[in-house]
Protein: Glutamine--tRNA ligase
Organism: Brevifollis gellanilyticus
Amino acid sequence: ATPASLDFIREMIAADVSAGRNGGQVVTRFPPEPNGYLHIGHAKSICLNFGLSQEYAPNSRCHLRFDDTNPTKEEVEYVDSIQEDVKWLGFDWGTNLFYASDYFEKLYGFAIQLIEKGLAYVDDQTPEQIRETRGTLTAPGTHSPFRDRSAAENKDLFARMRAGEFKNGEKVLRAKIDMASPNMNMRDPIIYRIMHAHHHRTGDAWCIYPMYDYAHPLSDAIESITHSLCTLEFEHHRPLYEWLINNVDGLPGQPYQREFARLNLTYTVMSKRKLLRLVKDGLMNGWDDPRMPTISGIRRRGYTPAAIRTFSKAIGLTKYPSLTELNLLEHYVREDLNKIARRVYAVLRPIKVVLTNYPEGQSENLEVPNNPENEADGKRQVPLSREIYIDADDFMENPIQGFHRLVPGGEVRLKYAFCIICQEVIKDAEGNITELRCTYDDATRHGAKPVGRPKVKGTIHWVSAAHAADVEVRLYDKLFTVEQPDEEAGEDGDFTKFLNPGSLETITAKIEPSILEAQPGSHFQFERVAYFFADPKDSQPGKPVFNRTVQLKDGFVV
Ligand code: ATP
Ligand code: MG
Ligand code: MG
């Protein structure tokens, strides 16, 4: 198979394959740390790594590897949610599920190898002292007084670190590289630290844990990964990645690392730390709140895996940081839902309309298509009777110019039914409109346009009052009021002050009765309103709850 479109990563891989590197195999991995839920940014990385594996099948595979080297922040809940999310996106790791913690013994052995080669040493300095002696971008760091310990002493101390003889922070193992390197990551980086903490998989077996920068390249090599693809912030870690691959002997694979720009989206934040804050501070109703940019949040909002995959392909891969418009993501969601969402009638802000010339106590059923975009979805019966609801937005007592819907004395078409004329506006003592009294014209049924009759410009939707169901509807909007809450808040600023107070409005809507059988987790277009998703968590049999997934279009329609 040949890749569909060649971005710089795919070009590089295609060149490797045609040169026969690794026997033409492409082995990638998606390596999340189980310290939070995945977000839409991770989806970009998942679509890339698993996508490459599909493009190069059968000479390929993609591993799901949990980078679980920091026991204090990691939880089984996150491990489970990550697997669910990757599957939901439509990818399959098969038998290739791994944990960096499974390599703790091997990684320990590699550290001993480095000690024996004189390439690692135990440092007794405190983490603060180590930080202070690292130097600056313009000045080299200073050597630790413990830098020249013998291999024998280092081996003994490292074994005693493992045995639990020392407290947290009392000692670390450092790689012995170059304290004058222009790359700060090469100034004798810490590769092991003491942490007396319970690990979600290894329990209390270990009290020393490898640092990410040490565990990651070696885990890649252990799994014979060929291409280790990560985001730009790791570019400065690449020399250390290569140093480890080159200096540790007996590695099964020789991976190399390349970086691409992470996904940044407007009107949201995308770091697990910040998302965790929103959850822990109760600012969101959990990780799967439909306003969250998490995979579980957008799934519950009604985004589809196909839309996310198409979006990922469309944004492509670049070497430079960029900001992607939320609008673009919504565009792909809308495009997919247009094909698959069943249409129903719902009135979000009802005004009652009485059809004064429609016989009292009578009703009829109109046949309407479930999805005009897809005939195979069939038709359904929609009841109509003397009293109906229309949306308050579809009536203007004092119409602005260009308003083509219902106005006093004006005429509008009720979709799939007939035309009505507003004869009278009824108000309560405070002057609020309580009812519109209209007459209908039987000659205009089924879209008929009798000759010589004045033209009717507007068409609106409606529901029969006697048949309508009252249903809870959640209107979701942008999570933040500014495009880049991170940037606007600055490093120490508080991004939560830009949370959109209108990001959730809960209303009771009047909906056609067929909706009561809606299966939780199904997609709908409320005609002329927006796309909605029957909430998989809060919907009850016969009592669905709807989340607004996305507007029909961007901007306002007059
Ligand atoms: P965050 O910085 O959002 O907390 P992370 O990078 O710490 O996330 P990891 O679990 O370490 O999260 O990431 C797993 C993989 O996903 C890494 O390869 C990382 O580069 C990639 N990734 C994370 N965020 C993005 C993003 N916004 N766009 C593309 N890839 C991302
Ligand atoms: Mg991380
Ligand atoms: Mg990160």
User: Anything to note?
Assistant: The two ends are 49 Å apart (CA to CA). The chain is about 25% helix and 25% strand. The domain at 8-260 is CATH 3.40.50.620 (Rossmann fold). Residues 532 and 548 are 4 Å apart (CA to CA).
